[in-house]
Amino acid sequence: MKLSYKIDEVKTKNILNIAFDVSKDDLHVYTEFGSSKINCIQDHFSNNIEMIQSKLTEYKKLAVTNNFDNIQVLCEPTGGYEKKLMHLARQLDCYTSYVSGESVSKYKVVENNEPSKSDLKDPRVILLVGKVGKLIKHRLLPEEYDLLRHYNRMHDQENEQKIYIKNQLTVEIKNLFCDFSFKNSFLYGTSGRILIERFHCNPYLIVECGYARFCRVMKKHVPYIKGKTLERIWADAQRSTRLIMTVSMIELLENRIKQLWQNYLHHEQCLAQIKDQMSEIYQKLLDAGEAIPRAEKGFVSQTNLARIIGETGPLTDFKHASQLIRFGGMALRLRQSGKYKGKDKISKKGRARLRLILSQSIFHLVKMDRILGGLYHRKKQEGMPGTKAMTVVSRKLLEVLLALSRPGAVYDPERLFTCQSQFEKAA
After folding, report:
1. What are 199-256's pLDDT values in tens digits?
2. Cβ contact 24:128 at 8 Å
3. Backbone dihedral region for residue 290 (phi beyond 0: left; psi -120 to 50: alpha; all else: beta)
4. Which H or E run includes 109?
5. Is the distance from CB of 344 to CB of 352 less than 8 angstroms?
6. Cα dist. 44→26, 59, 65, 66, 120 in Å?
7. What is the rounded CA–CA span in Å between residue 265 and residue 271?
8. Are the beta carbons of 168 and 175 closer than 8 angstroms?
9. Predicted structure pTM score
C-alpha cells in the first residue's frame, strides 16, 4: 500500500474561488461557499474595464465579509478576451489562475450529467475544475520578456507577409520571363536581386539592351558573377522574347514586379529591425545578470535565443527540464490500456510558437558534422521518422538551454551526451 498526500492550497490560503466564463462582450460569473448551507452566487456583466474593476472590488468585499482573505479569479484562456479581467485582478491584488478548456469540456458531463453547453453552465463547470485543483498558472511576464513575446508575434507576421509576397513575385516573374531556367532561390541571391532591381526580370528589356551592355551592368554590381551565368540568363531572355506579348501587357507585368519587389524589401527590412531589437533586449537581460544562456557560435544565435525565451519567459520559473518540455507541448502522451499499446505522440498542449522556433533553430544542428547531428541520425537509423527525430532534438536543445541558464554553467560540447559521473572519470 502506498500512502501519499497533497495540500489544498485554496483552503490553506483561505481564498474564495470565483469562476468567469469570458466572451468578447460579456462575463458570466459563478461562485459558491459555505459548509452545510451552500450560498450560490451568479452574475453577468459587460466585458469592459470599468465594470470588471467595480465587480472585482465588490467580490473582494463579499469574500472578506464571509471570512475569506482574498479571491481567486478562474477562467479559460479565450484568445485574448480574458486579458483585461486577469490583469485587473492582479492590479487589485487578487489571485489568478487558468483552467484548461479541455478539462472544462470533459467536466461538463460530471457537473450535471448533461453534455450541453451554455453561458450559465460554463462558469459552474470552471468552478468545479478549480475545486479539484486542476489549475494552470497565470504568469505575468517581466517587461523585457513580454516585449520579446510581442516581437515574436510581429516577427511571424512579417515573415508570413514576406513569404506571401515572395510567392506572388515568383508567379509574376514566370509570367513575364517565361523561360527563366534558374531556381527561385537564385532570384533572392546577389545576382538575382540585381537582375530584378536593374532589369525587373524583363527579358524584352534585357534583349533590347544588348548582350555587352547587359553583362557590363551585371558585372558592375556583381563583380564575381560567372560568365556562364550571364550567358544562361541571356539565352533564357532570347527564348522568352519569342513569345510575342503586347507592350501594354509587358508594362503591366513589369510594374507589378517593381511594386512587389519594393513590398518584399520593406518586409525584409522590418524583419531585420525586429531581429535587431530582440537581440538588444536579450543583451540587456544578459548585462543585468538574468539567468539565461549566452549565444555560442555554431550552436544557437542570440536572435534565436531571444525568440525562445520570449516564449518560455524567465527560465528560473522551471525547476527541471520536464516542466519546460511540458510547457512547450512536447511531453509524451501515452496510449496504453491492458494489452493495447498505441503510438506515443507529443501532447501539443503548450506554446506552438515555441515548438516552431525550436524546429527552426535546429535545422543547422542536425547535419552529420554538427553537434546534434549524431543524435538525429542515430534516431533515423533506429527507424524513427524524421519529424519525430526532429522533436527529440528539439527536446534536447531545450534541456541544454535550461542547463546553460543555471549559475556557473559553461557550454562544453563534450558534456552534452555524457553523464556527470562518466565526464568526471574522463577528466
Report:
1. 999 999 999 999 999 999 999 999 999 999 999 999 999 999 998 899 999 999 999 9
2. no
3. beta
4. helix 101-112
5. no
6. 7, 13, 21, 21, 9
7. 10
8. no
9. 0.85
